[in-house]
Amino acid sequence: NALSETLFLDIDQKGNHFRQVYHKGIPEAPLAITGTSEITGTSIRFYPDLTIMETDAFSFDVLAHRFRELGYLNPALTIILREEETLREEVFHDEGGIRSFLLFVNENKRTIHDPLTFRKSFDNGSTFEISFQYQDTTDAETLLSYVNNIPTREGGTHVRGFRAALTRVVNRFIKDKNLNKGEEVRGEDIREGLSAIVSIKIPNPQFEGQTKAKLGSSWVSGAMETFLAEALEDAFEKQGTVARAIADKAILSAQAREAARKARELTKRKNVLEGSNLPGKLADCQENDPAKSELYIVEGDSAGGSAKQGRDRRFQAILPLKGKILNVEKSKGVEKFITHDEVRALITAVGCGLG
């Protein structure tokens, strides 16, 4: 309405036809009965205000995407999108609600179980709906969240409560069944491969920022976590196979994360050991073939000086090191060992690794 030059509102209700006209967001007159009607519904016609909008062209595909969302989020609603110029038309209606929405999102994707769908109505008029399913993939989660049909792309308290409940219940199942004896399963492991739709309808939602991309209503997080945790625990008891599949996937994700961490640490250690520069105190020899070369490790710079004077530089190399450089038995962790300057000098000079 605020972006329209003129807007016509027609309502058919209780046998009457009502009309109201707005100009630049301001009503020209109060809502008035203009006749009788045998149908029920609302019609809105508007003309964009081109002093605000850059164009009056509408994208059929953009509108279709949004109306498809609304059709799933409101299963009792039927939306007909028609482009009169091209006669292109599409109808959006699905009584399956967000479960059907999730199946649409995961179309042509391999999944490990059927969607788990939960719904609860509260005394204050609020409604929470959740549907989720796991893909047989290591991709990050795909989570679509809505508040009163408004997409919350940055999540918020409803998403926070959903994630907390899912993490708590899956970890409890893993612990109760004694499934994991290795790395701790984290929330990020449990959400790997997850596809979820979280839709809530609440009175007086509080959003963070002007774009309404993130819900800030504090009570929603606790209400969502409590409701979903109870519902999910009950579902896991009834569908043990599904619960086990989800738990096993989370454990594998945790193991993969730990393996990746160890691989990164190994790479870091390898990089430390494989420095291309020879130690500064090494008096290298001319021979490049290790089989024909000799390395003398001497204690201290003074001994190093004497050894250099008496060596055959063609095949004899001298490396002076400090005496008693490190007590490896008391040293905590291999990192301290391999990052010690004297040890690194020795490793680099010899050209060996760690093992």
TrEMBL record:
The entry's keywords: ATP-binding, Coiled coil, DNA-binding, Isomerase, Nucleotide-binding, Topoisomerase
GO MF assignments: ATP binding; DNA binding; DNA topoisomerase type II (double strand cut, ATP-hydrolyzing) activity
CDD domains (alphabetical): TopoII_Trans_DNA_gyrase
Transmembrane segments: none
Domain Toprim: 293-355
Highest taxon of the lineage: Bacteria
Record-linked Pfam families: DNA_gyraseB, Toprim
Reactions listed under catalytic activity: ATP-dependent breakage, passage and rejoining of double-stranded DNA
EC number: 5.6.2.2
GO annotation, biological process: DNA topological change
DNA-binding as UniProt keyword: yes
InterPro entries reported in the protein's UniProt record: HATPase_C_sf, Ribosomal_Su5_D2-typ_SF, Ribsml_uS5_D2-typ_fold_subgr, Topo_IIA, Topo_IIA-like_dom_sf, Topo_IIA_B, Topo_IIA_B_C, Topo_IIA_bsu_dom2
Coiled coil: 249-276
Family of the protein in this entry: Belongs to the type II topoisomerase GyrB family.
Name the UniProt record assigns to this protein: DNA topoisomerase (ATP-hydrolyzing)
